[in-house]
Amino acid sequence: xxxxxxxxxxxxxxxxxxxxxxxxxxxxxxxxxxxxxxxxxxxxxxxxxxxxxxxxxxxxxxxxxxxxxxxxxxxxxxxxxxxxxxxxxxxxxxxxxxxxxxxxxxxxxxxxxxxxxxxxxxxxxxxxxxxxxxxxxxxxxxxxxxxxxxxxxxxxxxxxxxxxxxxxxxxxxxxxxxxxxxxxxxxxxxxx
Length: 192
Hints:
Layout: E1 2-7, H1 11-24, E2 26-28, E3 31-33, E4 35-41, H2 49-66, E5 69-72, H3 78-88, H4 98-116, E6 121-124, H5 134-148, E7 151-152, H6 161-171, E8 185-186, E9 189-190
Parallel strand pairs: 1-4, 1-6, 4-5, 6-7
Antiparallel strand pairs: 2-3, 8-9
Helix pairs in contact: 1-2, 1-6, 4-5
């Protein structure tokens, strides 16, 4: 059975993915396979600190409810994140858009952990959101897959977005109102 490390951006995005994998297995190379799933929390971009803590606690609560193995890389680093965005994002810099840098920063942490701890596959709940750029996520993940020698599996769960929100409310989980980074926060509205 393959070991899967799932990067989790938030509990509401993880719900339908976890439940589908538990019930049906994970879609790998056009075939459903039972897998050993671990959830990985690394979201040092989330601002403010209280928002970060609410999302992390909601993640823990859901993992406990579903008895999902979880790993928490608890590094809140707003200053480092903002400094790195300023230094690395923009015209003629390594990353042309802020979100690409954010995906890279978080997913590199996940791939590195997976490589060092015997995981076969990395995936991410970022691909559940209709607000995220799936093409950029996939390009970043494929690059990191080659770099760290861990397979990346893309799953498009956007069709379950509203179902996940409904279930999050049903389970009493925290529901955020914006992407998470300081640049996307504007009085609690989604901003891209």
